[in-house]
Amino acid sequence: MKLGLILLALIAVAWAVTLVKAARVEARAQADFPPLGQFVTLGGARLHLYQTGQGPDIVLIHGASGNMRDFTFDLVGRLADRYRVTVVDRPGLGHSDRLDRDGATIFEQADVLVRAVAQLGVTRPLVLGHSYGGAVALAWATRHPEATAGLIVLAGASNPWDAPLSTYYRVLSHPVGQWLAVPALTAWLPEPVVTDTIAQIFAPQDTPQGYGAYIGAGLSLQRRALRENALQRAGLLEEIRQMVPDYAAITAPVEILHGSADTTVWPQIHAQPLARQIDGANLVILEGIGHSPHHADPQTVIAAIDRAAAAAGPGAALR
After folding, report:
1. By the 8 A CB rule, do 112 and 99 touch?
2. Which residue ranges form the domains of the chain, and what is each CATH number?
3. Is the pTM of the predicted complex or chain greater than 0.90?
4. CB of 300 within 8 A of CB of 257?
5. Do 254 and 281 meet the contact criterion of CB atoms below 8 Å apart?
6. What digits encode the pLDDT tens for the residues 125-154?
């Protein structure tokens, strides 16, 4: 009995230390990587948006486990001389609040982002989504065609796949994992694991110089972000299955860009079928490029954005 009580006490102390350390990790991330932009509030949730530049409107939507800094690192600066660029932290990630505790679907995210950017005067933008954000961009275009001047899907998830949900996401999306594993990851995940994960995202290209120090990986390790990201990812496959029949109704100009060496979101499963499902869509396969074309070949991405803007027609995406 005495040994059992000692063991319980040790577990309680270890858990208390974990919670304190997790809170410190979150506080440090918030201090080191403060909000870049401004907040709008919808339904009680604060959403973080950053806007810069002048010209036709474009909205950039980041992928899973990320935040808007993936775009502000380089791409935003390349666009701001001729576009008004609005970048978002998707619900629950970066500095944005969660919409609820169930994990926001791509449809819920699209709905709230359309309303959020409208508060900044953006009503019919070009919409660019990367990776998971590509699915959100497609949900935006299918549910809100009146608010879509053009669509750029960048290494985007768009079609069903056969692989099961990874153990990582199965654990973190489970109620027990949300309660136990998430705080442990926030508190104790070693820095080399973060660095290696970033490198895998860019492979076969190298991580851009300065990216790791800029991106604010600690923001993705916040408990609310880990929980929300896992739930979003766990629900993605079924949500995409629901959305596929709606692709044929997209009439806005569509550019699809995907690296041939992308092993995170395979072009054969996603980009190539999507190009057949949307009438008039333009598919660009970037040879030898991995999962981050906007870093590996930004000029090709910008050329696609310019084509979509031109196809949208004079003034179609203007403020």
Report:
1. yes
2. 41-312 (3.40.50.1820)
3. yes
4. yes
5. yes
6. 999 999 999 999 999 999 999 999 999 999
